[in-house]
Amino acid sequence: MKISNIKYDLPIDENVIISKRNLVSGEQIIVLKPKMIRKTIENWVKNNFSFHISSLYVIDEIDRFELFYYVIHRKSNLSFILAEVLDYNNPTTQTISDLSGTIFYEGEATEMFGINFEGNKVTEVFLPENWNKGFPMRKGWEKSKKGDKIE
Amino acid sequence: MVTWSRVKSPWLIHMNTGSCNGCDIEILTALAPKLDAERYGVKLVGSPRHADIMICTGPVTDKMKIAVVKTYEQIPNPKFVVVVGSCGSSGGIYKNSYITLDGVDNVIPVDLYIPGCPPKPEAVFFGIAMLLEKLSSGKLPDLKGEIL
């Protein structure tokens, strides 16, 4: 059964969808307008739809960031991906850590890529204390020279 | 009287079915003094024969399958299974892996899911409280895999 043929009970407002595309694995990526993911998930939580966020990851596309929320639909046990494109110079979006258990995923994206999740206070967990060498998972990041001390 | 005793002393058995230990630590935090689940009679026990609720974390690896089933069968009735974490709920990041079974519900029946990676201790605490609330009505709850 193809994912695109399945009708989820998770409504997504057609007005906030920018594009849809399928991965080779069969999973569907639904790209939403900026800052619409929180509203969508709030709606699902309010209406007790059966879903949960399995993971969250970021891709650095040099001129932009792509943020992916891996959603699992409980009733059919199938998955799809909500995506949001962020501006490279000001990557800011809203947290969903109070709605779903993504607090550490968001913290990791903040520390590694510099993405600001408004409302998430977990920002100093993964890197050493007083880290001032930038965001190490960005493609433009230059690693420190040999012998440099991490202050 | 039976309902009262069941609600006032739900004993838990915690089983790691292949998790990364993130959820396990959050469960322990829920039982630690800050939230103090023990004030509601919630207690971790070492033997499944003493337990009422089984808490599973992890997507269930191939090798753990037999252990999960055996542990579940040893718990006296009525018994409840609570799954903590995304991996246990659906496979999480191990979904479609060749070595995992994509969630606890593919092995034993599950009553309550607490998804998250990891879920906050408050969510774990809330899940247990929700189960107890349903138990206190006097009838055995039919949660049918409710998601928090």
CATH class of chain B: Alpha Beta
Distance between the termini of chain A: 54 Å
Largest sheet of chain B: 6 strands, parallel
How many angstroms does the end-to-end distance of chain B come to? 29 Å
What's the level 1 CATH class of one domain in chain A?
Answer: Alpha Beta
Alpha-beta classification of chain A: alpha/beta
Topology overview:
The complex is a heterodimer of chains A (151) and B (148).
Chain A: E1 17-22, E2 28-32, H1 37-46, E3 51-60, E4 64-73, E5 78-87, E6 92-94, H2 103-113, E7 116-118
Parallel strand pairs in A: 2-5, 6-7
Antiparallel strand pairs in A: 1-2, 3-4, 4-5
Chain B: H1 2-8, E1 11-16, H2 22-31, E2 43-44, E3 53-57, H3 64-74, E4 80-84, H4 86-90, E5 112-114, H5 121-135, E6 146-147
Parallel strand pairs in B: 1-2, 1-3, 3-4, 4-5, 5-6
Helix pairs in contact in B: 2-5
Short account of what is shown:
The complex is a heterodimer of chains A (151) and B (148). Chain A is 14% helix and 31% strand.
Question: Can you characterise this structure?
Answer:
Chain A has 151 residues and is α/β, with parallel strands linked by helices. Chain A has a domain at 3-89: Beta Polymerase, domain 2, CATH 3.30.460.80. Helices cover 14% and strands 31% of the residues of chain A. Chain A has a five-stranded mixed beta sheet with strand order 1-2-5-4-3, with helices on one face. In chain A, strands 6-7 form a two-stranded parallel ribbon. In chain A, a hairpin with a 3-residue loop joins strand 3 and strand 4. Chain A starts with 16 loop residues before the first strand and ends in a 33-residue tail after the last strand. The relative contact order of chain A is 0.15. Mean pLDDT of chain A is 82; it is low at 1-5. Chain B is built from five helices and six strands; from the N terminus they run H-E-H-E-E-H-E-H-E-H-E. Chain B is an alpha/beta fold. Chain B has a six-stranded parallel beta sheet with strand order 2-1-3-4-5-6. Chain B has a single domain (2-147), classed as Rossmann fold. Chain B has helices at residues 2-8, 22-31, 64-74, 86-90, 121-135, and strands at 11-16, 43-44, 53-57, 80-84, 112-114, 146-147. In chain B, strand 4, helix 4 (86-90) and strand 5 (112-114) form a beta-alpha-beta unit. Helix content of chain B is 32%, strand content 16%. The termini of chain B are far apart. The A-B interface holds A 50-55, 72, 74, 77, 79, 100-105 and B 22, 86, 89-93, 95, 102-103, 113, 115-120, 123, 145, 147.
